[in-house]
């Protein structure tokens, strides 16, 4: 029985490897959810060959959280989005470090640099044994998972649905008003829930930890001549004007004053954008922000062309 | 160290390679003890000292219960039990109790409110208690069959019993009367390879493919206010399947690993989600804990021998303490209390209503039991009761939100193997079962293939936190 199990296992593995690698195009990855698509994005960046890297990745890389992951990149063809939903910006920096290829510029989302947690996801990604097996055996990578193929069709339908900007139909003005009030109440609830994380000033101890962390991650890139561009994504006004945000802006400027290698995109006035849940933007606001980002990133890229 | 880690695989290969070498036969037990201590020390090196202390207490007290002053047997056994419980209380419940009197503002408060929780302490403490009670009461076997004359040999056996790595950090909870008689030299020819491989494949499949993939969705229960009612309900059921897959998977892995070294552990899960009553559920879920509580708490309290009212009280006490064993939070006590109440109510109804059961009533009852158990698992997911009520509030308020098809579809897909697993048990002996037996090797090979290619993101086992 044990022998039979192992023989059948190797046959299934061989058949699936051939099917996936030979018959399905290399860029046709499937994912069953946002966490898996995050893993695929990270693994593609880490494990692509030098040729693929040159084809797919730009000399400008943007790192951040889910907020930056949502930036519409169609109008930013010169920038690679290496921001990850559910992760902190430091993840992106670790990936660039692990890949070993220095971009010319790194656009750093500064909103959440005060927080850092090394998740299981990161540990798995950088664990040497898992890293090597995934690097040399593509079938072990995310994006090749058999069960994901069942849900990938549903996923693509859902994405289509999202980008079509689903509009709720109302049968009366009262319904519409009620719906809007519910949406506003929900967003306010998100704000009230999360505001405790923002209401206090950064303590001295936290400041030292944040400084040490930022210097660990960013200084090496600066030494190697990489240009760092800080930008802030728009969040709800209450967070934007919070003590934590104010302290972080001062701290980042203190550590990395504007200069030859450090640039700042202008800060968006608090309250200029409407968020869907205090930190993320709806579709229209994302388009507005992409436009803003393009104008200012183009200007910085031109300025630092040599 | 996780069973799903590469480092564990290396430790296992190294241990197994040496274990059955004939020249090393005499050091089989010390080899397993050494591996087990390395396994435990991997993440928590200082707590190895605690493990050794616990073992030391149990070694000495159990030895002198058997070979010491016969008039002091009871005193020694009780002293040992109290010491075990004191250690458990200090590391696990001290923070919870002292939070009523102290705050973080002074140094004593900072110390007592933040005592680290050694992994596995709930399990190895209960095993120590099992040893002491078994040698004192001699209810199952003579105490000399557990405790040999030689103190050093007893020390070796007891350290092995408590630290043996398959069960060390998340059970099954071993009983001394079951385990000690098995301690002897083992031979490679006696390894039940088919049983080992099957247990490991199903165990790793449940953990790595089912539980770890569920985890990638059910963590969103932490932000319940963002999801529709239907999505939340789906995640709730997903969590119920996740906790089963995680824990049953771990237990099967532990059983398979123990068999590899010639030791048999009692099965810990017997298809619990087909239970048609709460009493049935507790005969199928975490069997090693429920039998431990029955043998070492419920029966000593009087069981059902002291009248109906006392029986119900004994059930409530046993289950509430059983709930609290899971963690130092009132939500766990509430969970245990709820199960105790349900058992008591069920018993009362069975005694007084004498309902006739047929397939239909059993099915309805089974669905009801599953629903209630699933809802109660939320007390594990939300150790703060405030978050539990926030979830209930979200269920009420979020009816109009769009459903997240991606989450629902994925939870449905990963639920299928759990449902099929239970259905296969129900179909034993039938035509379906016979067909399965013919292609059994293909099924196991497919599970193994999915373990290799379709695992979720790595993570510790849920029961490690207990």
State the share of residues found in helices of chain A, binned by percent.
Answer: 55-70%
Query: Cα distance, first to last residue of chain A?
Result: 67 Å
Q: For the report, how would you describe the main beta sheet of chain B?
A: none
Principal-axes geometry of chain B comes out as globular
Biggest sheet of chain A: strands, sense, closure? 5 strands, parallel
Query: Which regions of chain B have little confidence, pLDDT < 50, spanning 5+ residues?
Result: none
Structure description:
The complex is a heterodimer of chains A (306) and B (466). In chain A, α4 links the parallel β1 (60-63) and β2. Chain A has a five-stranded parallel β-sheet with strand order 2-1-3-4-5. Chain A has 306 residues and is of the alpha/beta class. The relative contact order of chain A is 0.13. Chain A contains 13 helices and five strands. Chain A starts with a helix and ends with a helix. Chain A has helices at 2-23, 34-47, 50-56, 66-69, 89-99, 120-126, 128-136, 146-163, 173-194, 204-223, 237-240, 243-255, 283-303; strands spanning 60-63, 79-81, 105-109, 227-231, 262-264. With 466 residues, chain B is mainly alpha-helical. Helix content of chain B is 69%, strand content 0%. Chain B contains 20 helices and no strands. Chain B is globular, with a radius of gyration of 23 Å. In chain B, 43% of the residues are buried. Classes of the chains: A alpha/beta (306), B mainly alpha (466).
Question: What would a concise description of this structure say?
Answer:
The complex is a heterodimer of chains A (306) and B (466). Chain A has 306 residues and is an alpha/beta fold.
